[in-house]
Amino acid sequence: MANTKTLYQHGTLALLVPGLLDGTITMKELLEHGDTGIGTGEGLDGELIILDGVPYQVASDGKVNVVKDDFTLPFANSHFGEYRNLTTVDALSPKELETKILAMTSSNTFFSIKVHGTFTNMKTRAVKKSHKPYATLGKTAEDQSIFVQESVEGTLLSYYSPTIFDGAAVGGFHHHFLSDAHDFGGHVLGFGGATGSVMIQQFDTLEQHLPVNNPDYMNFDFSDWDILSDIHKAES
């Protein structure tokens, strides 16, 4: 029986900051820990969103691809979906949506949100794959493509991490999006309004998996890096 109370995370956002962008887990391995999730490919190769066990990659050219088992990732979240209905929303901005959700749950544990409905002025991004020697997260993220849809139906898949875990993940919400037509999506930069149903799944356990077989990660000194500042610059 699938464990629906555990959020599995491979890698940390902190390791992306200095450019430790090697793919250190395969999609096949990641899917053993969940049928729902988000992530990015080796070299920040696009933005991933996993729904119903299918891993979609929004590439920098805007195309949505289903990736193969041997696709590798430096960072990803996954879990086995068992969402419950939370509420419905009508034309809420990202800030309004997040405020409403937090008023109905606790900010001291991890949870995932799925919002399905219609979104106005949805703005997403996907980064172009880079190759060794990798640049920093901030520099690599500059080579990104921005996509905008005035009105689009789809799924907003989000993970919330408590502030005390900032660095391992993004403290707060981390949103990815995929259209119902599977022709638009990516890391969410913003939207005008969300109208639809909101579902939530709360976790009581974070399973943090680190790339201990990657020498670059194991030998790196993070002490001279302003990790949190760089994460929030790149993710905003």
Automatic annotation (TrEMBL):
One of its GO terms (molecular function) is acetolactate decarboxylase activity. The keyword Lyase applies. Keywords: Acetoin biosynthesis, Decarboxylase, Lyase. Pathway: Polyol metabolism; (R,R)-butane-2,3-diol biosynthesis; (R,R)-butane-2,3-diol from pyruvate: step 2/3. Pfam families: AAL_decarboxy (PF03306). GO terms for biological process: acetoin biosynthetic process. Its EC number is 4.1.1.5. Gene3D superfamilies: Hypothetical protein, similar to alpha- acetolactate decarboxylase, domain 2. It is an enzyme of class 4 (lyase). It catalyses: (2S)-2-acetolactate + H(+) = (R)-acetoin + CO2. InterPro entries: Acetolactate_a_deCO2ase. Signal peptide: none annotated. NCBIfam families: acetolac_decarb (TIGR01252). Belongs to the alpha-acetolactate decarboxylase family. This is Alpha-acetolactate decarboxylase. It comes from Companilactobacillus nantensis DSM 16982. The lineage of its organism: Bacteria, Bacillati, Bacillota, Bacilli, Lactobacillales.
